[in-house]
């Protein structure tokens, strides 16, 4: 049966604050079928019912073992067939960085890739995560393909792939998020693992559209952002993408996160 499938992803930058500033209203008004959230930074017991188990949604949450850090969620209209936390790498199993939900014909993952900081242990953590995650992506695509399913990895990848993916690329060439080795790694996700950056496939030229703007200075007002929130899909699903939009707040005051939701609509053929 053919239908329209709408999928959103957003880094909420702390769900407790986002829930009070507008996330709950956005979720209630959303026409999406799947929503992935990152940087939740809270356990379910710390969140309101409207976030933990909102009406009309099946909600899955993966908190970090370190309180107040990371955390990812996936909301689906349909009940999942299977839920997986982590991707098999012991260091990151309880880090609140990866949550996978299996639906009929579709595997959906919420990813919060480490942000890194050049010359620190945070950058080393990011590099270890990337080294372990790429082989898993290859394995995931193979297993899903054998089962007749597509895959979409939603989330904050914390890497701008090309110069058109951030406003001030010249001054960020030595900063985490735009390092040559990080960009090359993301290129391997596309070229070697065979995934597709769905939004960029629909809009090859750019610049942007950006999904994150620093709270510092006038970054939001000047649209000096980064395109780091992505929907990375297997080719079969990517080919069905109809449209993509960044739900950028109309004004600085109306923001409930320093990120904006990325929403993609697909022409979906539902199994059965």
Automatic annotation (TrEMBL):
The active site is at 112, 156 (proton donor/acceptor), 259 (proton acceptor). Its cofactor is Mg(2+); Mn(2+). The record marks 158 as: Transition state stabilizer. GO terms for molecular function: double-stranded DNA 3'-5' DNA exonuclease activity; metal ion binding. The keyword Cell membrane does not apply. Gene3D superfamilies: Endonuclease/exonuclease/phosphatase. Pfam families: Exo_endo_phos (PF03372). The keyword Manganese applies. SUPFAM superfamilies: DNase I-like. GO terms for biological process: DNA repair. Keywords: Hydrolase, Magnesium, Manganese, Metal-binding. Mg(2+) binds at residues 11, 39, 156, 158, 258-259. It comes from the Bacteria. PANTHER family: EXODEOXYRIBONUCLEASE III. This is Exodeoxyribonuclease III.
């Amino acid at each position: 049966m053919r239908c329209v499938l709408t999928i959103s992803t957003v880094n909420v930058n702390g769900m407790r604050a986002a829930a009070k500033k507008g996330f709950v209203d956005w979720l209630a008004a959303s026409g999406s079928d799947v929503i992935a959230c990152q940087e939740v930074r809270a356990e379910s017991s710390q969140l309101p019912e409207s976030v933990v188990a909102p009406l009309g949604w099946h909600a899955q949450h993966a908190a970090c073992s370190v309180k107040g850090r990371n955390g990812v969620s996936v909301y689906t209209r349909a009940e999942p067939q299977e839920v997986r936390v982590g991707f098999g790498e012991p260091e990151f199993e309880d880090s609140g960085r990866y949550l996978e939900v299996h639906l009929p014909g579709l595997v959906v993952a919420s990813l919060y890739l480490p942000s890194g900081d050049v010359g620190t242990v945070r950058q080393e953590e990011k590099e270890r995560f990337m080294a372990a995650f790429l082989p898993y992506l290859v394995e995931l695509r193979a297993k899903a393909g054998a089962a007749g399913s597509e895959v979409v990895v939603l989330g904050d990848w914390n890497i701008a792939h090309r110069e058109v993916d951030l406003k001030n690329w010249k001054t960020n060439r030595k900063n985490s998020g735009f390092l040559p080795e990080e960009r090359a790694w993301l290129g391997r996700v596309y070229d070697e693992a065979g995934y597709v950056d769905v939004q960029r496939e629909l809009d090859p030229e750019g610049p942007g559209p950006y999904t994150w703007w620093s709270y510092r200075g006038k970054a939001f007002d000047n649209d000096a952002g980064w395109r780091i929130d992505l929907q990375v899909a297997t080719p079969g699903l990517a080919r069905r993408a109809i449209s993509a939009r960044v739900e950028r707040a109309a004004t600085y005051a109306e923001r409930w996160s320093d990120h904006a939701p990325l929403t993609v609509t697909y022409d979906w053929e539902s199994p059965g």
